[in-house]
Amino acid sequence: MTSSGTNAGGLAGSAAWELLLPAASAPARARGRALQAALREAIRSGRLAPGTRLPSSRDLAADLGVSRGLVTEAYEQLTAEGYLRSGRGAGTWVSDAVRAARPRARDLAPRSPGADVDFVPGTPDLSLFPRAAWAAVQRAVLAELPHHELGYPDPRGLPRLRTALATLLARRRGVVADPERIVVVSGVAQASALVGSVLHARGMRTIGVEDPGSPQHDGLYAAAGLGTVALPLDEDGLALGPLRASGVRAVVTTPAHQYPTGIAYSARRRAELLDWARSVDGLVLEDDYDGDFRYDRAPVGALQGLDPERVAYMGSVSKSLAPGLRLGWLLVPAALAEEVVERKRTSDLGHPSLDQALFARFLERGDYDRQLRRCQRAYRERRDVLVAALAEHFPDARVSGIAAGLHAIAELPERYGPEDDFLKRVADAGIAVRPLSACTHARAGEDGVRLVLGYAHLPPARIRAGVRLMARALAG
Question: What global pTM score does this model have?
Answer without folding.
Answer: 0.82
